[in-house]
Amino acid sequence: MSRPSIVWFRDDLRLADNPALRAALDRGEPVIGLYVLDEDGPGIRPLGGAARWWLHHSLASLGERLRERGGTLVLRRGPADRIVSETVTDAAAGAVFWNRRYGGPEREVDAGLKAALRAGGIEVSSFAASLLFEPWTVRTGAGTPFSVFTPFWRACLALPGPRAPLAEPREVGGPHRAPASDSLDDWELLPTRPDWAKGLRETWEPGEPAARRRLREFLQEDLANYDRARDEPAAGATSLLSPRLRWGELSPHTVWHETVEAGAGGRFLSELGWREFAWHVLFHHPDLASRNLRPEFDAFPWPHLKPTHLAAWQRGRTGLALVDAGMKELWHTGYMHNRVRMVAASFLVKNLLIDWRRGEEWFWDTLVDADGANNPFNWQWVAGSGADAAPYFRIFNPQLQAKKFDPDGHYVREWAPEHLGEHPPDPLVDLGETRKAALAAYERVKSAS
Ligand code: FAD
């Protein structure tokens, strides 16, 4: 009797270069794709609103692509360990395959499930697919994890290079009768009351085919300008691949190899390196989103939170053109250019003196690329409390940053044109005074270290 194989899709919503899917196909039995919406498993961070929107569309695309190839995608909701086991029973499956996750609670779920399924006689295999270098394989000479990017990346580049991507399967034969599936619409991942996703729909087309198109277009049209223009938010010079990598519609291996074949891209590849580094740090510090990596920052005397200041920042009403433009771009599209993310985050932490965790939470809810490692890692980097972080005393001046990186005001004109009118809004706070206050607060950190 045939005992189907289950491929448990997670942050790898693709058919190409998917080692778990490849292993299931090689096993030669019918294949069942499974996605579990686990919103309240122990320690699992619930997805933000923009991420839920992306997930809906990416799952719709994946399901369609599996069906076109004779396969199926079963959708189920609940704590992953219970739901995967139940699906194995319902499908009378003989094997389960998945690509690894690297967050602490996720690893615990996966390890527990692997042991339980194996104890029940089910074959289980997991694969490296979402990172170029497994976090535990990159070590300093002393055998410890890295806390500084440059030597980390050098050590990565000294390892055997990322494997070549696996081809996309033409056929994915499913079982005669698939186990019951939820309907995607019933998960209500899309906003309805109100429907705030218009800007997301106008900006993005989630799913693997669009991801591959964007990679090709970037390599052909934009990569040559990347090093020169990547810091200019109006230049459109970056890849916009972050949500694709977040959801695994493209593997980093595919991006890596196609970039190398395109014949350039050292700087661009090192940005992929920052993604690797963020996950390396998260792997070794699973509570990166809640705890200062540098404990002396626990002594930082955050003043009492002013909710009006936080709300002004969230809505792009700080009176600082580049910050407001960025926050509006984020609200409208679920994305913000990296340079502007740094400036907006610095303004929140070092001019409004609001705890970086409040900013991280807002980004988590509003970014389509909200990423369990990249988001807290970069927030801590800006705040000064993180790995290889910007020194706290280096405080961006949002007005100078606008002059330098958006000198003709193209970006501000697009997202916050009110700043270019006759009566631009006043800054919410005085940059000089708040800078001084931030530096004074930082003295407490210094004396705690
Ligand atoms: P490109 O410049 O084309 O870079 C290519 C890829 O490299 C990106 O898609 C991304 O996967 C990776 N990358 C680039 N810069 C970084 C970086 N600084 N750290 C880690 N990976 C990087 N990125 C996310 O993917 N998810 C997040 O939740 C996220 N939150 C951030 C929060 C703050 C406060 C800051 C300052 C940055 C954050 N970033 C995050 C990093 C960066 O801003 C985005 O990855 C980048 O803007 C995405 O645009 P792109 O794909 O065009 O980048």
From TrEMBL:
This is Deoxyribodipyrimidine photo-lyase. Belongs to the DNA photolyase family. Its cofactor is FAD. It comes from the Bacteria. Signal peptide: none annotated. Keywords: Chromophore, FAD, Flavoprotein. It comes from Microbacterium yannicii. The keyword Flavoprotein applies.
